[in-house]
Amino acid sequence: QWHVNKNVDNLSGCPQIQEAAACLKGNEVVAFPTETVYGLGGNALSDEAIEKIYRAKGRPSDNPLIVHVASLEQLHQICDSIPDSAQKLIDAFWPGPLTIVLPKTGALSKRVTAGLSTVAVRMPEHPVAHAIIKAANLPIAAPSANSSGRPSPTLASHVLDDLNGKIAGVVDGGASGVGVESTVVDCTVEPVAILRPGGVTREQLEAVVGKVTTDPALSQPDKPPKSPGMKYQHYAPEAPVYLVAGGKEKIQELAKLAQSNHKRVGVLTTEENKCEYPMAAAVIACGKRADLASVAHCLYDSLRAFDETHVDIILSETFPMKGIGAAIMNRLSKAAGGRTIE
Ligand code: TXA
Ligand code: MG
Q1: Are 35 and 66 in a shared domain?
Q2: Does residue 83 sit within a domain?
Q3: Predicted structure pTM score
Q4: In the chain, at which end, N or C, are there fewer CB atoms within 10 A of the end residue's CB?
Q5: Quick one: 276 and 312 in the same domain?
C-alpha cells in the first residue's frame, strides 16, 4: 500500500507513484483512486496484465474494460478516428467522469475489449490517476477495483477488503470524489447513446451535443444491453436490497412487518429521514437528499457498511431521476437485482 497526498506538486515524481508505475510497466496490476471510484489498473497493451485484472476481480471475460489515458496523444494511439460528437464531448468533459466508446485500433490487447470492435476510453481528472498513467507512459485498462458483483470501492480500504493478496498494491489517495462510476456514452452511433448513467449527467451531455438517447436495456431488463457489464447483478451487499418507491410510510410499514417476523431490517436513507425508522435494526444515512451529489459520494460506502450490521434485508429509499439521481437509481436498482416495491 502506497500513501500519497493528492495535493502535492509534481506527483509524477513521487517515489510512491514511480513504484506503482514501475509495477504497471512490469505488467503487474495496481489499484489507484480516480475522481469516480478506485480503479484496478493494468497495461492495456499486454494480454498478461489484462488476464491478471480479470482474475483478481473474478470478472466474466465477456465484459470489456475501460482504457484510461493521460493525454490526447495516448488516445490517438488506440483509436484511429474520432467522430465529431466525441470531439465535442472530449473538449467539454475531459479530463473527467465521461467514458466514450470509439472505434479501436489494433494496438490494444484483444482481451481489453472482449472481442468488440470498439474501445471505451476515459481521461480521468484525479491528480493521482493522471500522475500514474503519465509515469507509466502506457494506456491503462482499469475496471472498478472491487470483486466482481460487489459495490465499487471509494476508499483504499474497500479495495483491500476485496482484493488484498490478489494485486501488486493499492495507491491510497483518500476518498474518491463523485462516488459513482463514469457515464459511458457510445459515440459510434448518431445520436450519441448513454450506455451507463454516471458522473456526467444527461442534461450536461445534451447541452453539448443536443438530444442523446438512452440504451433501451437500461429501463427494460429483458433487452440485451449494449454495454456488456450492465447485464450483471452488481453493487450488491450481502443482504438482499429492496427499493421501496412508496416513501417513508411504506418503508416503516414493511420494516414493522419484517421485525414482527423476526427479521433484522436495515434501512438505507438520508440525513433528512434518519430518525424516521426507530423500528429498524440498522439505519444508514447516505448523504443529504437535498444534495444528490452527497448521496452519490456515500452510496457504495453505505452499501458496504450494511455487511457489518448483519441485517437480513435492506429497504432503500428511492431518489429522483434528475441529474446524478439517474446514476444513483441505476446503481440501487442493480444492487436490488430489480426488486422494487411500488
Ligand atoms: O468511473 C469509471 O468508469 C471506473 C473508473 C475506475 O474509471 N471504471 C469502471 O469500469 O467503472 P468497469 O469495468 O467497472 O465498467 C466498465 C463499463 C462496463 O459496463 C463495460 O461493459 C462497459 O464499460 N464497456 C467497456 N468497453 C465497452 C465497449 N467497447 N462498448 C460498450 N461498453 C463497454
Ligand atoms: Mg465495475
Answers
A1: yes
A2: yes
A3: 0.96
A4: C
A5: yes
Please tell me the number of the ligand nearest to residue 193's CA. 1
The total domain count for the chain is: 2
CA 148, CA 127: separation in Å to the nearest integer? 26
Same domain? 36 vs 184 = yes
Residue 18: CB partners within 8 Å, gap ≥ 6? Answer: 12, 135
Is residue 250 included in any domain, yes or no?
yes
In tens digits, what is the pLDDT along the chain, a chain of 342 residues?
999 999 888 898 899 999 999 999 999 999 999 999 999 999 999 999 999 999 999 999 999 999 999 999 999 999 989 999 999 999 999 999 999 999 998 889 999 999 999 999 999 999 999 999 999 999 999 999 999 999 999 999 999 999 999 999 999 999 999 999 999 999 999 999 999 999 999 999 999 999 999 999 888 878 888 888 888 778 889 999 999 998 999 999 999 999 999 999 999 999 999 999 999 999 999 999 999 999 999 999 999 999 999 999 999 999 999 999 999 999 999 999 989 998
The residue range of the domain holding 137 is 2-230
Question: What ligand is nearest to the CA atom of residue 143?
Answer: 1
Output the ligand 1 site: residues, CB below 6 A.
Answer: 34, 36-37, 39, 63-66, 97, 99, 101, 113, 116, 118-120, 122, 142-144, 181-182, 184, 195-196, 226-230
Regarding whether 322 and 175 lie in a shared domain, the answer is: no
Which domain CATH number covers 279? 3.40.50.11030
Cα–Cα distance for residue pair 274/146, rounded to 1 Å: 28
| 49/84 same-domain check | yes
332 CA → ligand 2 middle, Å: 14
Tell which one of 99, 121, 300 to mutate to probe ligand 1, the residue whose CB is within 8 A of the most ligand atoms. Answer: 99
- For residue 87, how far is its CA from the centre of ligand 2 (angstroms)? 25
**Cis amide linkage into residue 191, ω under 30° from 0:** yes
Pocket test for ligand 1, best of 78, 155, 180, 181 (most atoms within 8 A of CB): 181
